[in-house]
Write a structure and sequence with these properties.
The protein has helices at about 25-30, 40-50, 55-75, 75-80, 85-100, 105-120, 150-160, 165-175, 180-185, 190-195, 230-245, 265-270, 275-290, 300-310, 320-330, 335-340, 345-355, 360-375, 385-400; strands spanning about 30-35, 35, 200-205, 225. By secondary structure, the protein is an all-alpha fold.
Amino acid sequence: MKPSQNDAEKASPADSLNEVDKRPESFKFLKVHDWTSDCRSVNNLLLHLLRKSGSVSSRTLYVWHLMNFCRYAGKTPDALIRLRRDSIERIVQKYADTLRPRSPRYSRTAILILRTFFRANGFKRAKELDLETYYVPPRSRLTRDYVPTRTEVFRMADLAGSPRNRAIILTLYSSGLRNSTFRALLYGDVASELESDQTNIMLKVYPEMKRIDPGACKGNIPYYTFICDEATQALKLYIKQRKEEYGDISDSDPLFSSNYNQIDKTLRAKKILCDRQLQTLVKSAAKSAGIIDWMHVHPHCLRKTYESVLRSPLLDGSTLDVKAQEFFMGHILPGSQDYYFDHSKIERMRIIYSKLRFERAPISNKFRVLKAAVARAFEDTGIDPEQTIEEYVKLRRSGQAGDLGL
């Protein structure tokens, strides 16, 4: 069980009677304003979280769990930290036991969060709470997942219902972006590459995305990935249709806007997709594609399909370097490997990405192999590989290639 998306909204104190307090319930209950609280004990917790990672989504989760525990105990946070250690241990353990029927993972998370709260308020070292956690079986999940095959993903895209939905499915699949990160993409993030006619458009992930969605850019890890040729064409078609329907798109507008028909049409293009909308869109596409377990196809499942592509043989029969696989997934490499992995050469990474087996048409794959080989041969020379191929084809047709020894 997780807090609602409204809990992720940035808190803003209602200093004026004319202003509506839009803070989530948990923030109001614990008197939280941004990263401070009128409750001293809660303020200590927030300072700890701010020093540790500054994650807005973590703050939301901790505050929500603490509110529920305070209601269970019938005490304020400041009153809780004045209790004896054995009394606190007894209350926390009983509270976690009541959550056990829902999920052992949920109970364990509650204990870890409450232990952090009390540790931030002096219960550490010799005073550390002695609590029993719960065994979580491997691969234990409350919700089932069905990871679609590549063929099923393309069928989902073909039957998604609109150019927008088709572009969403293919972009999710070929970029491997997480749900929150995907929804936080802005048009300005890809505008220049769309205009430069790139076949594999780059999608940047950066910490500032958290201003749009607190869950974006997990761990504040910046990286970039790309989308496949077919996703690029689908995205261009969607952008063209959107401009015809809504007019010009500004750089600050979401790349994939909401189609929520309960708001004014002029505002729809500026409203980002919510988590529920994206979940519904993916499930609906899976159902239309005839997937039996369509109810268990989530946006994150397409990230898993993407990972399987990264692990599969490339178009030239080789395999993608493990470091590149982890980078394209947005993971930090272990030890000092991340420091020495060179991801600064974007065009080189684009060439590597272009060898992944996304497309369903064999003839398309052959041309991609040719293009990748020519691009690698002329790397760092400034020579356009596509123009080189075109010039070679012209020479072949004119019969001059033989004279030049080609």
